[in-house]
Structures are given as C-alpha cells and as structure tokens.
Amino acid sequence: MSSRASFRPSPLLIGQCILILFGLGLLYTIPPAQGRILLVPITGQARTGLAAEAVRHGARLVSAGPWTGSLLVDGDRAALSGPLLRHGVLLLSSQAGGCTERFL
C-alpha cells in the first residue's frame, strides 16, 4: 500500500485566504483621498443630476465613466462621499472602473 497523503486545507486557512482576497479587492476599489474618482449611480434617480450634485460638492468633471451614467471626476473624497452616498452614488477608484489614460 502506498501512503499518499492528501492535502486538505483547514477551514481557517480557507477563511484567511478569502479575507486576504476580499481585502485586496477593497483596497483596489477605495477612491483616493484627493484625485480622480469614479462616480457610479446605483439607481435611476441617482443618475439624474449627478453632474450638478458632484460639482456642487467641489468636484471637477473630467469625462464620462466607462459604465452607463457614471462620471469620472477630480475631487476630494471627504467632501463628496457623504452627500453622494445619500444621493445613491458609489465612489470608486478610477482604476477599479477601468479608467485609464485612454478614457481621459
């Protein structure tokens, strides 16, 4: 008989790997404190007036985002996050949305 040991990862190891992957994904999507931020409306109502709402809170419009209704802006995360989240808009890192130099 051959004694082949089969590798079975422990639930703790699997949980740690999941947390690491989730954490890396979260770090990749968090918008910068200052700079290019992708605004993604999550409701139809949030799309209405998104540009005006962003500008009202200090953002400078850069271009349309890669997804329908999204906008790429230059702004301050602290000034934008509260009002825009209440308006139904997610703030993401511009890299998370695929915004590279070719979109600018």
Automatic annotation (TrEMBL):
<protein>
    <submittedName>
        <fullName>Uncharacterized protein</fullName>
    </submittedName>
</protein>
